[in-house]
Automatic annotation (TrEMBL):
Its cofactor is Zn(2+). It comes from Conexibacter woesei (strain DSM 14684 / CCUG 47730 / CIP 108061 / JCM 11494 / NBRC 100937 / ID131577). The keyword Ligase applies. PANTHER family: GLUTAMATE--CYSTEINE LIGASE 2-RELATED (PTHR36510:SF1). Belongs to the glutamate--cysteine ligase type 2 family. YbdK subfamily. One of its GO terms (cellular component) is extracellular matrix. This is Putative glutamate--cysteine ligase 2. NCBIfam families: gshA_cyan_rel (TIGR02050). It holds the Pfam family GCS2. One of its GO terms (molecular function) is glutamate-cysteine ligase activity. ATP-dependent carboxylate-amine ligase which exhibits weak glutamate--cysteine ligase activity.
Length: 381
């Protein structure tokens, strides 16, 4: 299979700056045990009675996972309004069917070996190509698409976001548990996914559409990929949508955090685009330096120090949000983007409970409750 690169260029040329699409992944749970349960197909089929919901949900690798999509919003506020409506519909349907939904980066205790891959051509291809790597990947994320006009500009925006990714990851960290134990990490999802999948994590800097296209042509020519979505980087130009897609973040336990994080990501993409336009000097940091910050974000999230790569000094992880807000202040003012996030992120809240002696079941029950009470909104709980 070959990719239509000319159509990809057209998609970027026709793209409108800073339109937004949101994708949120939820665990499908038994409401009593809060274990993963393979009922995606049941939800998908039941959603056909609601055309809006049917259009907005999608499968995501395993039958105990469901994705909800906002569709294209004119800006982040519009996308959030759309997504809130879709969430309400999904949570109401799940409640009707006796299904709970969870929103952490990993499921704390369900066995990945018991999960079933959904029956689609794409995910059969993923399973056939990756085997254990696919089976092991029971993870849940927030993806944000931001329209960026121009293929060269989109690639250059991705380049400038490379050193930003660890800060976004630290802010979003929400997965301390996996396989029934405390991993000791703040985002074990990232360790499981980005350190396991091929063509994943922080990409190289390409500098231009032509260089990026040459790499994709190499992958196709060498039978490494047959579709573009087999490039699983944490930030990538999306060839079909004409967007920059940021994929680094854990799923968020509360709707407010998901909305705030999405707004922050849109601000980062938009500021990077403005910096490209304005010729703001930028030296692409080597991958080895960005990886140091990636590991720190994985291990301690906002509770440990990160590295100022330009100055080669540490700074408190808790200052990551402050730094991104300072950088994006011009474009947030221009576009009217408001970013509101709590003092403690999901991993920190879970870690505080762990440190106070709470067990895995109690901690996860608290996150599922947060999710139900905030994402469901108009559903009586």
């Amino acid at each position: 299979m070959s990719m239509d690169f000319d159509n990809a260029v057209t998609a970027f040329e026709d793209s409108t700056d800073f339109t937004v699409g949101l994708e949120e992944e939820f665990a499908v749970l038994d409401p009593g045990t809060r274990a993963l349960t393979p009922r995606f197909e049941e939800l998908r089929d039941a959603a056909q009675a609601d055309p809006v919901l049917a259009e907005s949900i999608a499968g995501e690798l395993i039958s105990s996972e469901i994705e909800i999509r906002s569709g294209k919003g004119v800006d982040v506020a519009d996308a959030a309004i759309r997504q809130r409506d879709h969430r309400r519909r999904l949570f109401a349907l799940a409640q009707e069917r006796g299904i709970a939904l969870g929103a952490t980066g990993t499921h704390p205790f369900s066995d990945y070996r018991e999960q079933r891959i959904i029956d689609t051509e794409h995910y059969h291809r993923v399973e056939d190509g990756l085997k254990y790597v696919a089976w092991r990947n029971n993870t849940f994320s927030l993806h944000v698409h931001v329209g960026v006009q121009g293929a060269d500009r989109a690639v250059q925006v991705c380049d400038r976001l490379r050193p930003v990714l660890p800060l976004l990851l630290a802010i979003s960290a929400n997965s301390p548990y996996v396989d029934g134990r405390d991993s000791g990490l703040h985002t074990v999802r990232t360790q499981t996914f980005t350190k396991s999948f091929p063509r994943c994590g922080v990409p190289d800097a390409f500098g231009s559409w032509q260089a990026f296209r040459s790499y994709l042509e190499f992958l196709v020519a060498t039978n490494s990929i047959v579709e573009y979505t087999q490039v699983w980087w944490s930030v990538r130009p999306h060839l079909s949508f004409g967007t920059v897609e940021v994929r680094i973040c854990d799923a968020q336990s509360t709707a407010g955090e998901s909305d705030g994080l999405a707004a922050l990501i849109v601000a980062c993409v938009a500021q990077a685009a403005r910096d490209v336009e304005d010729g703001v000097p930028f030296a692409d940091p080597p991958a080895r330096l960005i990886e140091e910050n990636m590991w720190r974000a994985i291990r301690r999230g906002l509770d440990g120090p990160l590295i100022d790569l330009e100055r080669a000094v540490e700074f408190p992880g808790q200052a990551a949000l402050e730094r991104l807000l300072a950088w994006t202040a011009p474009v947030r003012a221009e576009l009217g983007i408001d970013v509101a996030l709590p003092e403690l992120n999901g991993a920190q809240r879970q870690r505080r409970m762990i440190d106070a002696g709470a067990g895995i079941e109690e901690v996860y029950a608290a996150t599922v409750r947060e999710t139900r009470e905030t994402y469901a909104q108009e559903v009586i709980v």
